[in-house]
Specification:
With about 475 residues, the chain is an alpha/beta fold. Helices cover about 55% and strands about 10% of the residues. The protein is elongated. About 30% of the residues are buried.
């Protein structure tokens, strides 16, 4: 029993769970075995690890991406010094060089503070690129010589602290975050104390109790108050490579936040009015929808163009076949003329020769006609199959796009309905907890809230019974 329990705990620790997390799972071997099975699907090396790189404009982020990417797959971002407003203007994915045998993919983002791309645009790009996908690690760059967290690091910190980034099951999402101090060579030459300040122990605090060190400040709200970090310069990325190799095999998921949530989360950090920031995020959502519609239009146009090209190719083949048929007809006509000439000669010889030639000609014409018919039928079948396959693929893509769009709309409707229901429950006296509305009502109170009776589910969710007799949850 003890050997089995210890083996399961060691297996969970190998997936990146800390000692306290493993110990907190208890001694239920069946439960632990189930967790090991679930986490085992993310076994190292089974697929490339996806790394999202975010940082301040001008802090060496593009140089870092160039160092990690595989140049065999084409060009990467230019040197950041070539553009004062930043190099990367949209999220771009590059194949990376293997790290300790593990394939990686690098998602490079525009720099925070880029003069041509706002924070709202950047976050909108991240939300659009990640969607509900899973990523294996987030590399946050910050210049060591700054001696503090840059705005880029603060934005990521807020997103990780919120519900945007989520761990799988009980997994600690902070274990997938790497704070990367850049330009260490410059710090060693001009500000050596900034290196010490960067990695000060979390126990070294200011008068207000906040950590002094950059790493400690960034990870102050992580469960252990600390996390993975690395310091690099343009000729040495070994610390970062080691940190990437130590990323857990359990990915984290990004969940899109609505404009209200984003503005409330980031307004103070970037120093703008929350309502103005909310309007920016709403505009970004509108632009994303326009890009989606344009994508659909481009796809339809491409389909029509491909279909037209296929029809043109089909017509060209038919014309070639018709030309061949006419050529064969001319040859047949020539053969008939020869037969007529033979008839003018010795009748008996001519008759014998005519029959032989006629039989040969008939056989040849049958073969030609059969080949023409077979070729035509085969070509028509191929065209029909290609058209059918193209329509199926387009219909499948359209169905998938509609499903994604419907899912997004349903999620927005659900959140909107939840907000209205919570508002009704508060102002009408039907709050979830007793007495939370102006007139009370309680978790199960029937007063206020439109006459609904709220119930608490076995997992703490709040719901009421709708007119169809089914449960409608207002809080899970």
């Amino acid at each position: 029993m003890m050997n089995t329990l210890e083996s399961l705990r060691k297996a969970l620790a190998s997936f990146g769970l800390g000692p306290k997390e493993v110990e907190g799972l208890g001694d239920d071997t069946a439960k632990l075995a189930d967790l090991v099975t679930r986490y085992g699907q993310y076994e190292a090396g089974s697929a490339p690890k996806t790394l999202l790189v975010i940082g301040q404009c001008g802090d060496g982020k593009s140089t870092l991406v160039n160092a990690l990417r595989d140049e065999a797959f084409g060009d990467g971002p230019c040197d950041a010094d070539e553009d004062a407003d930043g190099v990367t203007k949209e999220i771009t994915t590059y194949p990376g060089l293997p790290i300790h045998g593990q394939q990686i993919e690098i998602m490079d983002t525009p720099g925070v503070g880029d003069g041509t791309i706002s924070v709202a645009s950047l976050v909108g790009m991240i939300q659009e690129a990640l969607g509900a996908s899973k990523i294996d690690g987030v590399i946050v760059t910050t210049k060591i010589t700054d001696g503090r967290m840059t705005m880029g690091a603060q934005v990521v910190q807020k997103l990780v602290e919120s519900k945007a980034f989520r761990g799988e099951g009980i997994h600690d999402k902070w274990k997938n975050i790497i704070l990367c101090g850049t330009m260490r060579d410059m710090a060693e030459a001009s500000k050596p104390k900034s290196i010490e300040a960067f990695e000060l122990d979390k126990k070294v605090v200011k008068d207000n109790g906040a950590p002094k060190g950059v790493v400690a400040s960034f990870f102050k709200n992580a469960p252990e108050g600390w996390g993975k970090y690395a310091m690099v310069h343009q000729s040495d990325y070994s610390q970062l490579q080691e940190a990437v190799a130590q990323l857990p095999n359990v990915p984290i998921q990004y969940k899109k936040l609505n404009p209200t949530e984003l503005s409330s989360l980031l307004a103070e950090t970037i120093g703008v009015d929350a309502d103005e920031l909310k309007k920016e995020f709403e505009d970004e959502l509108k632009k994303a929808e326009e890009r989606f519609q344009q994508m659909l239009a481009d796809r339809d146009a491409k389909y029509a163009d491909d279909l037209a090209k296929a029809d043109e190719a089909h017509k060209a083949e038919l014309l070639q076949m018709e030309a061949k048929r006419k050529e064969d007809a001319e040859k047949m006509k020539s053969d008939m003329q020869k037969i007529q000439e033979l008839q003018a000669k010795d009748k008996e010889e001519a008759e014998r020769q005519r029959k032989a030639d006629a039989e040969a000609h008939a056989k040849r014409m049958q073969e030609i006609e059969k080949k023409w018919a077979d070729d035509h039928a085969q070509m028509q079948k191929k065209m029909d199959e290609e058209r059918t396959q193209m329509r199926k693929e387009v219909e499948a893509r359209e169905a998938e796009e509609r499903r994604k769009k419907d899912s997004a709309e349903l999620e927005l409707q659900r959140l909107d309905t939840l907000r209205r229901q919570i508002a009704i429950g508060w102002h009408g006296g039907g709050g979830f907890d007793g007495g939370c509305g102006p007139t009370g009502g309680g978790r199960h109170g029937g007063g206020g809230g439109g006459g609904r009776t709220y119930h608490t589910g076995p997992r703490g969710g709040v719901y009421y019974i709708n007119s169809n007799g089914k449960k409608t949850y207002v809080r899970r």
